[in-house]
Amino acid sequence: MKKILVIDDEENIRNLYQAELSDEGYEVITAEDEDDALELLKTESPDLITLDIKLKKSNGVELLRKIKEIDKKLPVIMCTAYDEYKQDFGVWASDAYVVKSSDLTELKEVIKEILQ
């Protein structure tokens, strides 16, 4: 079973992603901030990460850089409610960019494609 780490500061988003992605057959672990995420990276070995760009205590783009320094092959999908970040050079290190929606069809398709 593939393991996904969901990093988002909004509890309702973490819960939604965990429920929906678990229904798709993935093991889902969640982190609300950079510290939790980096600790889980050490202990859990996820196969893929979804990462919010705007976190309360840190910047998702900066966290993306740190994740890629730890494991440059680990796929990261940037998830945000803001479409304008697509042009941010720092986001280009991610494997995909998905605009948040209550309909997770696009996110699920991107995850499936990356993990195949």
Short description:
This protein is α/β, with parallel strands linked by helices.
Q: C-alpha Rg, in Å? A: 13 Å
Helix content: 25-40%
Could you spell the SSE succession in H and E letters? EHEHEHEEH
Q: How are the strands of the largest sheet arranged?
A: 2-1-3-4-5
State the helix count: 4
The structural class is alpha/beta
Number of strands: 5
Q: How would the global form be characterised?
A: globular
β-strand amount: 15-25%
The unreliable regions are none
- Sheet of most strands: 5 strands, parallel
| Oligomeric form | single chain
Summarize model confidence as the mean pLDDT.
89
Q: How far apart are the termini?
A: 12 Å
Keywords, please?
5-stranded parallel sheet, single chain, 40% helix, 21% strand, 116 residues, 4 helices, alpha/beta
Describe the secondary-structure layout.
Blueprint: E1 3-7, H1 11-23, E2 27-31, H2 34-44, E3 48-52, H3 60-70, E4 76-80, E5 96-99, H4 105-115
Parallel strand pairs: 1-2, 1-3, 3-4, 4-5
Could you characterize the architecture of this molecule?
The protein is an alpha/beta fold and 116 residues long. The protein contains four helices and five strands, in the order βαβαβαββα. The chain has helices at 11-23, 34-44, 60-70, 105-115; strands at residues 3-7, 27-31, 48-52, 76-80, 96-99. The protein has a five-stranded parallel beta sheet with strand order 2-1-3-4-5, with helices on both faces. Helix 1 links the parallel strand 1 (3-7) and strand 2. The chain is globular. The model has no long low-confidence stretch (mean pLDDT 89).
